[in-house]
Fold this sequence. Notes:
The complex is a heterodimer. By secondary structure, chain A is mainly alpha-helical. Chain A has one domain: Cytochrome-c3 Hydrogenase, chain B, CATH 1.10.645. Chain A contains 16 helices and six strands. In chain A, strand 4 and strand 5 form a beta hairpin. Chain A is globular and about 80 Å long. The two termini of chain A are 35 Å apart. In chain B, 22% of the residues lie in helices and 19% in strands. By secondary structure, chain B is an alpha/beta fold. Chains A and B meet through helix 1, helix 8, strand 4, strand 5 and strand 6 of A and strand 4 and helix 4 of B.
Amino acid sequence: MQQVNKLTPFFENLNFERDDNTMVINFGPQHPSAHGQLRLVLELDGEQVVKAYPDIGYLHRGIEKMAENMTYNEFLPTTDRLDYIASTANNYAYALAVEKLLGIEAPRRAQVIRTILLELNRVISHLFFIATHALDVGAMSVFLYAFREREFAMDLMEDYCGARLTHSSVRIGGVPLDLPDNWINNMIAFCDKVDYEVEHTYDALLKENRIWKMRLEDVGVISAEEALSWGCTGPMLRGSGVNWDIRKEEPYELYGELNFDIPTSDRCDSYGRYRLYMEEMKQSTRIMRQLVPMYKASEPQLMAHAPQYISAPKEEIMTQNYALMQHFVLVTQGMRPPKGEVYVPTESPKGELGFYIKSEGEPYAYRLKCRAPSFFHTGLLQEILVGTYIADVVTIIGTTNIVFGEVDR
Amino acid sequence: MRKYVPKDNVQGKSYYTDRYWVAPRVPRMEVEAGSHFADAVKALGKLVKESYIEIGQLVVHIDPTQNVEVMRILKETCGYTQCSEQSAVDYLAQDGEFELFYQLLNITEAKRVRVHCRIKKGEAIESTTPLFKSSNFAEREMFDMFGIKVNNHPFLKRILMPDDWEGHPLLKTYPMIGDEFASWYEVDKIFGKEYRDVIGPENRDPSRIDRYDTKRFSRVGYEVPFDADISSGEKEQAIEYSETVLVDYTTSSKQLDERR
């Protein structure tokens, strides 16, 4: 045993070889495939994993604590930092939860813009997934191509809200801005580009690639019962043959009016999940195209009319006394939702992102719990990694598509 | 004179509330007879203390000792095969209790149920990991954040905070800037406790801003000469830290006594 004191601190790596001949290694938190700050303590018998223990908390910022100390509108930009690959999905999930609590609904145009942004973020997130996953598994060029397309999507986001990563592009009760000129045309061009690239670049490079298939097929197998029990959602659940997508089953925003398919795979392995991500990108572009005529047909109102909770438009604030008074109270004190609690699930690119809000009628949430999909997918690792080989560990972490902003919160 | 701030809840508070303000309540609907939710309530029978529908989801209040039984019935009879989320809400200041909630999902019916139960401070709850494996991480997080002990959990250990942390950050008594222990944590860890005096409270936080320091901080709009004394006799008020509330579970643990 090591003699631990201040000058010779405890190093777990020194305890390398144990009596029973299994080896304990630390995978991360600085491992390039650890997707941020995941530390996995793996016990290995030769190259086979005997025991896996995911250790998280390296990115813990106390976001739920901050929610109790911020008014509802103040907290919205903080939600960007949850799943920082697709910030709008978090902004939206939070805004929707507060809207449900208040009992208000965003106007039609805001809903169209939000749905476009959500799907654009899904494409961004899935492109990021395929880029990093392929890089982890060893396919370098896919990373470069996928990041090229992701850059176009980020440019679109930048055109809309000015930010590329932390968007804050959704407000409680609507959206802050209308789409800029020519944005729709750029978006359609981007959809064409993505559709083309998915088929002619990513699928051409990976779909029938022998090495890729050898690395992914029958790796990280989860049965449907296991997936449900471990709280898996999103592509992790659909990859196990369970047809469950919140957009379809509990439609929110405009998803009830749109035509799209939910791809599922009963392969239960990493390859099946990889196929789902590719199919979902095509479905996202299909949704975005359908939203274009809806956008053109909608009225220009962007924020819900609820004077008690939502500030009036700038023009009214500058011309009408009462709107100015309301605005002043809402900015200095914050909105006061009714007493009660709400849990609102949404389908973020990673899975079910839900916000549980307990309100006591104060401008500060009494309790806010963020149900992050990646948190539960990380918990799953301790079971599916057992029995696999060390080379497959990277594939399995990649396929769960965990982002540590929302694991540690 | 500084305004009195109650120590049992040091979270954000509205600085002004109208005297006549009465917060409305989100409407709670009764469970309609013949609906899917009515079947669920019927299946639970006497285990249910109170049930209603709030914003489209069934809310069921139960006794904390029967949580596993209720969850088993919901899972096996009513088809709630996934536990999406579980955690607690701190009502220690008001009632001396925690409110625990379990959020369950039925994927065939697309319905959600929230199960509520209340436990007193220091009481433990039975683990639901035999039914839902997602409880493994969720209960660990609940233990970490609130100090609620979970019986028969396979590996009840802190998950987000470091293992040697004191205090439970999501308690209402825990201030957002952290408590006394938290403010010295890095100093203690890197240099040792005896270095607290050498470093001093003014240097322990590298991101601390001293409003009277004109050497390192500029005053935009109110420029003053470099290193000028602008305090005019005022003294800076020290940040108030609340004491860490420590619940010592180990003293009355049956298992530990047996081991000893």
